[in-house]
Specification:
single chain, 6-stranded antiparallel beta sheet, 2 helices, globular
């Protein structure tokens, strides 16, 4: 898969629900890992743990000491970050601003 150097953008930030919806290249079940790695490289985050469900990829990631869940659902083509605690709202807001440019 070929992606540009900054293919990911903030689609929506919902601090009430603790979600940051991410826009980016289309992906399918098999291409998600490469796409997710590109996204994590863009925001300078690392993978802590990976879980694979029937149609959902769930990765625990670390961004500057903050743990977030990166999720990708290929049927809907959705990619998003979720907080683990409301204390992480500032981190999601920072990442949204980073992805907005």
């Amino acid at each position: 898969m070929t992606v540009s150097s900054t293919p990911f953008v903030c689609r929506e930030l919902d601090l009430e629900q603790g979600l940051l919806l991410i826009g980016g290249p289309e992906f399918d079940f098999d291409s998600f890992p490469a796409l997710a790695e590109q996204f994590l490289k863009q925001i300078d985050a690392t993978v802590v743990e990976r879980e694979l469900n029937a149609d959902l990829h769930v990765w625990l990631v670390d961004f500057e000491g903050c743990r977030l869940m990166l999720k990708g659902e290929h049927y809907a083509g959705s990619l998003w970050l979720e907080w683990l605690s409301p204390d992480d709202s500032e981190t999601l807001a920072f990442l949204a601003a980073l992805l907005t440019g």
